[in-house]
Amino acid sequence: MIHSIHSHTHNILHNGLETKVSIPGPDGLLEGKMHLAENTAASIALIFPPHPMHGGTMSNKVVHTLCKTFQDKKFHTLRINFRGVGESQGTPVGGDEELEDALTALDWFIKKCEMRNRDMIPIWVAGFSFGGWIALQVAMRRPEISGFIAISPPVETYHFNMLTPCPNGLILQGVDDHIVSANVVEEFSNQLIRQKGCEVRYNSLAADHYFTNKLDVLRLYASDFIEDHI
After folding, report:
1. Residues contacting 49, CB < 8 A, separation 6+
2. pLDDT tens, position by position, 205-228
3. What is the CATH number of the domain that holds 146?
4. How far apart are CA 33 and CA 60, in angstroms?
5. Which end of the chain, N or C, is less packed with Cβ atoms under 10 Å?
6. CA-CA distance, 125 to 169, in Å (whole number)?
7. Which domain holds residue 40?
8. Structure pTM?
């Protein structure tokens, strides 16, 4: 059970790096924050929040850390609130409906970025907890995805019935996580690691579910993986 602890968020200072956007979604408009890099040909990254029915928002600290990491690597970035969260319209469900939100946001953002760059651009997806499940589902459904980062994906709670094709990816897990089992996540990661044609990296660290006091370490792992694959 994913508890309501995902309500741990903080206010982000918007210093002109991000623009508020409204994306036409399957159940109404989706609220997002978009950052466009100076280089129009930059790679793009979508970052997905935790469970919408347990306080998961795009202002979550882990989501914000991932977003900043991609921005530091000169990516275009988009983070969204799933349906029924914040100013996103619709009714939260916590399942395949939010996957529809993610895929819709992906198509919208690709089109937005292609207006600035007509060439093929590398596309990454990332997410935390429930958002990690969403990122993995998107990565394995859409062959244009170049890479993924999944933080504490709840592999015991949600089905992962699509494991191929798999792009390069990083899975990070806290060994002191009392919500998502580190052992199960590692076992799942090993299934992906054994696949040919991609590099999937699994890292565990001494952290709880929220990576309390470990966000800098999380950011370092994510930054190193992105640097190795761009």
Report:
1. 6, 56, 57, 58, 60, 63, 79, 80, 81, 82, 85, 127, 128, 130, 131
2. 999 999 999 999 999 999 999 999
3. 3.40.50.1820
4. 13
5. N
6. 9
7. 12-228
8. 0.90
